[in-house]
């Protein structure tokens, strides 16, 4: 498609030139092609301007008015200047070849940032000349045995080859290389700063190589020795090389590579990898065809008997072939790519994209070399052409990655370079020998030989995601593609850590049957085969539960010159991304009972598999993983159970070597006390059951015969949004320490206590429209009370417990407590009316009206939207509650508004880029922390597009307002579509102001910039903790939830006795009834709500009341921090301004004292305030500690 | 209490106040006679003491007791900010209760006769009053009592009735006043609207309809780019639009550059 567009453009361009020759022709042309039209029109600038002026004059002379045009404000007249050719072509190009103007500019900036500077390029070239000069002066050595290493020790270089490889035959001789040149990314100038290694190819002279060196590991050993010799010689040249180390080529342990750091400034930025290669056309290319056997079993194992058919050695052939074909590839790349061309820029983009996903290095990487050759291949098959913009090249390559399937038959990189091997190659031999295939120009080498199937699937997955970002309008695709780093911990919904030792790994391998051949092929490194096997088993076990099983990569190893290579790590971590619709299924359904696949299924699942009858009457093999009424929290552990089982069953992997990251953070959502009376787990069911009670209550209320019909029942509670951290469950009334009246509990006058906290749900009743409502606010309140009384009477007749409060009714319904109030929408409007001096009234924003609007209008709609979010993403509830729990545990509740947290989490679900939407609370929590820690609130607006309800204009307008009015807007700018009001027309600026007036009203007063900074620090610290410890088996995740009190000026400790929410604390006190001590088959004692008609004490939290009182009284002097979920501490921080003496002002004396003799000043009366902290919380406050200064 | 505390500040007497005998910290109460030009029957100037910096735990009862030392106290009013007017009142405490004054506040102590005020103003230096009596008035007890009082009794019914009756009376009276139009000596009747004009609350659906209708009509009437110059102008406008966007984007890019948005590492 792009080709076509491009050609059109070209044709247009050539036409322009023709038509330019005959001026005036443009006027007659009536054409739909805007591009050509435009060009023609402005082809002759001078003439154009004259004409325009002329025609205007003529029109004015005739008395005509210039028609109303979309003329835009033009400050310095620049916008209407006649354009230059250059400008026009840039504008047109942007329109045609790029995503958007901004995207293009961002891309250019980025490419400029990552490209190598010319100065450095010259420096490196100079360095190479010196380096190559030095190498050519090295003397030839005597011939020695290839296996002998004593000379290496003399030179202080340790053999980087793996231990345990049998001795290699042959002789080694060093002679200066015939050629030293740059290859790969530097030579093609596709190098980016994200990968600092530059490749240098060193061609060995003829005398160093033997004709039979392809055999039995000789070449691989020889290249190591050659590098080692160079390394040894370089040790004495500190002016050339600052330091040296060993690393591995693409993570393949049989190909250790010398990495040198050039001395001087250049070495701080770039490293050089040395690749010795055999002389050109020395080996026959067909020798390295995948099906060829170049290793002898007898050589490797010593004891093996001679077999007729030697097994193919695809990996070994690749490892040698890479060096053999290196000059050829390098030539091909350098002839096809010219520096600075769009192709090169496109390749750079791809490399950045891969690097941000950590796919460009280490074992199983998608190397830059493969990218470059893939682009050349696409160029060859005309999927892309050299005129495309880098963006288009990037997009086309992604498309080709998602379209093709390299695991079946990869693209063959055919070029015009003739090769004798091409004819003999049979492409069919590649797939069974390699999991992923991408052949090079000769048809011999599989460029993707080191890629496993899992790696390749990951690349495809990322390519698909990238394409979806590019086509979606509401993600900032540029940033998510190129700037944001993809962290593996935040990438995977759950993580499977498999601890394997070499012995266990070999056992796994031995189950595959051909482990001897595999070990030989990898020259003693069979890890990739083991991991592929593990991934295969896990994938088969999870079936359609998973979207992706991606191995987590560790950085490529590098080790000092004089040390032995590090031991091979056989352990592997797998990141799992789930398919949310199937992942938590209780049943794994197998084939029908009468099909032949049954045996395979039974063999795979072992004793877990059983024959089951399904509802449609069919019989299937199936595996059942849990009880039908298992809680969601438990269901999230089913994949773990499956993985443990199949790994044990199929690969005999012990339970203790499997570790899962899934339940650690979610444990914070457990509530021990509720567990006793409800199937609580992580609380999703409790929320749902609360909402069901709400539904039945609203049915009951609607059925009441009131003077006005109820038109709607809605709720603004966080329970309905599924975001109440600990939704209360129906519990038996414990009236000890309280006074029990007939059907309610109150406090005895001499002081009692309430041990349990009951949270009521706010419910609002909207009545049908009536003209009879009064116009007076207190009269409206009276009418509302009358309605409340009416409902109260009716419900009491039906035998329900109802209490009347000043603004609401408290109803006990199915064991839950509800606060029901009647709402009257016109009240908002009445609150907005302000009397003017001339006796009229006018509409104006008032604080009362805004508050009322927020609670009765915006909040219920917003709550419904979030509830629908939960319907779309089943993990949303857990995620949002976990995040809120953390915010509160760090004493930030109240400072970071709850709604803001909910919105940020919703944003993570709506705009998950660069990831898939989170499918577990755990991963959403990590991403939330990342968001807090890495967001620049000053420059980032958060437009949370709930239900896609923003119009395009809204998005533009909000972004524009954000940039132009940043200083007056809240420090955290979060907008939902529900914050925008409906207006008459979008043209009137006053109306427009009205629409966007309430933007980000949730964060208007809080958080303060200081709080944002603090949360950034806290989240950053938590993330650091996770990245170091999350994969460890024994780690106390709660560390992240335990606040530090060091930063508070005053710490107020609260006594346990009156705290009603201690059960919600991070470390609950009463550990006597640990849920883990539960017996099997233990069930919670559900309370029958029908029996209980006693209203419990609701919404009574002394700690909350205390903090509220403190904030009201001393908010002008200090900030107060408290964890509402069972926190036993209140932290106090004095405001810096309060600590300095101030001018005496009688009206602002609040809490200050007057000092001074002649000149009076006021200072904060700290002693008195500290005493007040105690006096205001009599019965609750324990110790008060001052920070030692 | 520190000895360097002044006793007289801008005409205010400075007096210490602590919560109970055990508290170490002492707040300063500053008081002086209430002097304003406006006369109020609630706050007669000769008998009223104006007190500032009143700590949050002080209640009417506490102040009644503390100031009865100087003379019989008639009323105690608390305000958040100084105010010469009468204290807010409500006839219907259950339906529209008075807002509670929280935090630090100012107080007006009204004595029965002026001698109380004089006695208060001649308070010796470094006096420290003690707020609490036997029963604590803060903390758990206060919150529990507030909780128990939250539930309304059936008296609210009567209040609702009274309030609505009063409201009905008022509206009735207004209507009658509107209807009672008297002719002047020439026999003319002046008709005025008695109702306050209130801006109409527009309905959303209604709005949209009229809007789109108007727009449709307009569109129908308009001829797009009838003259050649119009075409040219439209083209120029288009270009200007593009340039404007280009400039805006450029601005954004420099902003992003400043916040290091192009460093992928």
From TrEMBL, chain A:
<feature type="domain" description="Nrap protein">
    <location>
        <begin position="873"/>
        <end position="1043"/>
    </location>
</feature>
<dbReference type="InterPro" id="IPR035367">
    <property type="entry name" value="Nrap_D2"/>
</dbReference>
<protein>
    <recommendedName>
        <fullName>Nucleolar protein 6</fullName>
    </recommendedName>
</protein>
<dbReference type="InterPro" id="IPR035371">
    <property type="entry name" value="Nrap_D6"/>
</dbReference>
<dbReference type="Pfam" id="PF17404">
    <property type="entry name" value="Nrap_D3"/>
</dbReference>
<dbReference type="GO" id="GO:0003723">
    <property type="term" value="F:RNA binding"/>
</dbReference>
<dbReference type="GO" id="GO:0032545">
    <property type="term" value="C:CURI complex"/>
</dbReference>
<feature type="domain" description="Nrap protein">
    <location>
        <begin position="493"/>
        <end position="651"/>
    </location>
</feature>
<dbReference type="Pfam" id="PF17406">
    <property type="entry name" value="Nrap_D5"/>
</dbReference>
<feature type="domain" description="Nrap protein">
    <location>
        <begin position="677"/>
        <end position="870"/>
    </location>
</feature>
<dbReference type="InterPro" id="IPR035370">
    <property type="entry name" value="Nrap_D5"/>
</dbReference>
<dbReference type="Pfam" id="PF17407">
    <property type="entry name" value="Nrap_D6"/>
</dbReference>
<dbReference type="InterPro" id="IPR035369">
    <property type="entry name" value="Nrap_D4"/>
</dbReference>
<feature type="compositionally biased region" description="Acidic residues">
    <location>
        <begin position="26"/>
        <end position="42"/>
    </location>
</feature>
<dbReference type="GO" id="GO:0032040">
    <property type="term" value="C:small-subunit processome"/>
</dbReference>
<comment type="similarity">
    <text>Belongs to the NRAP family.</text>
</comment>
<feature type="region of interest" description="Disordered">
    <location>
        <begin position="1"/>
        <end position="84"/>
    </location>
</feature>
<dbReference type="GO" id="GO:0034456">
    <property type="term" value="C:UTP-C complex"/>
</dbReference>
<comment type="function">
    <text>Part of the small subunit (SSU) processome, first precursor of the small eukaryotic ribosomal subunit. During the assembly of the SSU processome in the nucleolus, many ribosome biogenesis factors, an RNA chaperone and ribosomal proteins associate with the nascent pre-rRNA and work in concert to generate RNA folding, modifications, rearrangements and cleavage as well as targeted degradation of pre-ribosomal RNA by the RNA exosome.</text>
</comment>
<keyword id="KW-0158">Chromosome</keyword>
<dbReference type="Pfam" id="PF17405">
    <property type="entry name" value="Nrap_D4"/>
</dbReference>
<feature type="domain" description="Nrap protein">
    <location>
        <begin position="344"/>
        <end position="485"/>
    </location>
</feature>
TrEMBL record, chain B:
<dbReference type="InterPro" id="IPR012677">
    <property type="entry name" value="Nucleotide-bd_a/b_plait_sf"/>
</dbReference>
<dbReference type="InterPro" id="IPR034890">
    <property type="entry name" value="Rrp7A_RRM"/>
</dbReference>
<dbReference type="GO" id="GO:0034456">
    <property type="term" value="C:UTP-C complex"/>
</dbReference>
<dbReference type="Pfam" id="PF12923">
    <property type="entry name" value="RRP7"/>
</dbReference>
<dbReference type="GO" id="GO:0032545">
    <property type="term" value="C:CURI complex"/>
</dbReference>
<protein>
    <recommendedName>
        <fullName>Ribosomal RNA-processing protein 7 C-terminal domain-containing protein</fullName>
    </recommendedName>
</protein>
<dbReference type="GO" id="GO:0003676">
    <property type="term" value="F:nucleic acid binding"/>
</dbReference>
<dbReference type="GO" id="GO:0006364">
    <property type="term" value="P:rRNA processing"/>
</dbReference>
<dbReference type="GO" id="GO:0000028">
    <property type="term" value="P:ribosomal small subunit assembly"/>
</dbReference>
<dbReference type="InterPro" id="IPR035979">
    <property type="entry name" value="RBD_domain_sf"/>
</dbReference>
<comment type="similarity">
    <text>Belongs to the RRP7 family.</text>
</comment>
<dbReference type="InterPro" id="IPR040446">
    <property type="entry name" value="RRP7"/>
</dbReference>
<feature type="domain" description="Ribosomal RNA-processing protein 7 C-terminal">
    <location>
        <begin position="154"/>
        <end position="265"/>
    </location>
</feature>
<dbReference type="InterPro" id="IPR024326">
    <property type="entry name" value="RRP7_C"/>
</dbReference>
